[in-house]
Amino acid sequence: MATQTLVRAGGGSAGQVELDPAVFEAKVLPHLFHAEVRRQLARRRAGTHSTKNRAAVSGGGIKPWKQKGTGRARQGTIRAPQWSGGGVVFGPVPRSYEHHLPKKVRRAALRGALSLRLKEGALLVAESLELAEPKTKLATALLAGLGLDGSQSVLVVIDREEPLLERAVRNLPWAMVLRAEGLNTYDVLRHKRLVLTRGAVDALHARLAGAAAAGGEG
User: Which residue range is the domain that position 55 belongs to?
Assistant: First the structure.
């Protein structure tokens, strides 16, 4: 079982924390990253694009000229697609881009992302992260105490609601706070550094380790 140094918010070591290999030493499979990130981004699409077909365009209720005898091509309505101002043929309509991905695959992708950050040495486990006030200056100092100065993007994962910390970090363009139940592959991969609280590690063990053992997932 892998171990990681447990750091204090102000700096210094607070001992060691064990990381379950089922969660933090899983196989890193880039094709699962692609599938899960694609699913997440597709789900976020509004899908509100729309065009009007010939039935939805106003006007054009009668034939522009009679069927025969004019020498021109026959026309049924001036709202046909070939006319200026006519309807659009096979245009986009409101739709959902969401598609299904098995839960087993999604969990395997998240375990792989966590394992990748550990392998890269980009994972940090903090004893706890708390603020007395929701001040961005305090959040910056807190992260600086962990050796994070904003040169790389940071994802902070907590195990429970911390409204002061979440509000304080909100104004930092290079940092983001997520609760353990909402941790996902996309956000892990798009941040260069990952900070977990001790409680978040336990929450991720409970969320992912049991599922890996039950399903034989790697």
Answer: 46-96
pLDDT tens sequence across 63-110: 999 999 999 999 999 999 999 999 999 999 999 999 999 999 999 999
Residue 126, exposed/middle/buried by CB under 10 A (0-12, 13-18, 19+)?
A: buried
Tell me the one-letter amino acid at 86. G
Q: What is the C-alpha to C-alpha distance for residues 160 and 180, in angstroms, rounded to an integer?
A: 8
Do 148 and 125 fall within a single domain?
A: yes
Domain CATH for 144: 3.40.1370.10
Structure tokens at 165: 């910390």
**Of 144, 147, 142, residue with least CA distance to 158:** 142
pTM: 0.85
Which residue type sits at 22? A
Same domain for 83 and 167, yes or no, is: no
DSSP 49-70: -----TTTSS---S-SS-SSSS
Determine contact, residues 135/100, Cβ cutoff 8 Å. Answer: no
Task: Mark whether 85 and 171 lie in a shared domain.
Answer: no
Instruction: Count Cβ atoms below 10 Å from residue 204 Cβ, excluding itself.
Output: 23
d(CA 90, CA 57): 14
The reply to whether 41 and 108 lie within a common domain is yes
